[in-house]
Specification:
The chain has about 140 residues and is an alpha/beta fold. The protein is about 35% helix and about 15% strand. The termini are close together. α1 packs across α4.
Length: about 140
């Protein structure tokens, strides 16, 4: 039996969608296939990599991807938009997607200050994303 695919989408695929993809893989590898992409891909934020490693999740092998890599190539059971910018710019219909979810989180690229000050915000967003993934997994039955 094939597992439903989930695509996490944000503007740059540099932070939030990468974290969500990794957490879904961590918490439900037997239930879902997890992917992420961005509307205008940017390099993965090294502070996000660091914050994820702090909770035992490595982003080795992750790379920033454009949503165009998946359009017409894969069908997704769920599209999860994790930022308001992507929601504004995303097509209203996404071919092959059964359900669209909007889970907005603050953008780590907007955090200012020293790396340590930025990490405070990134850790908060990281923890919010993990909590949302866990809550969704408790709700969804596939």
């Amino acid at each position: 039996m094939t597992r439903p695919r989930v695509l996490f989408l944000c503007s740059g695929n540099s932070a939030r969608s990468q974290m969500a993809e990794a957490f879904l893989r961590k918490h439900a590898p037997d239930r879902f296939e997890s992917f992420s992409a961005g509307l205008t891909p940017q390099p993965i934020n090294p502070l996000v990599v660091r914050a994820m490693e702090e909770v035992g999740v490595r982003l080795d092998g992750h790379r920033s991807k454009s949503v165009r890599e998946y359009l017409g190539q894969l069908c997704f059971g769920h599209l999860v938009i994790v930022c308001d910018e992507a929601k504004k710019s995303c097509p209203t219909t996404f071919p092959g997607v059964a359900q669209v979810h909007h889970w907005p989180f603050d953008d780590p690229s907007d955090f200012a200050g020293s790396d340590e000050e930025k990490l405070v915000g990134i850790r908060r967003v990281r923890d919010e994303i993990e909590a949302r993934i866990k809550a969704w997994l408790a709700e969804v039955h596939e």
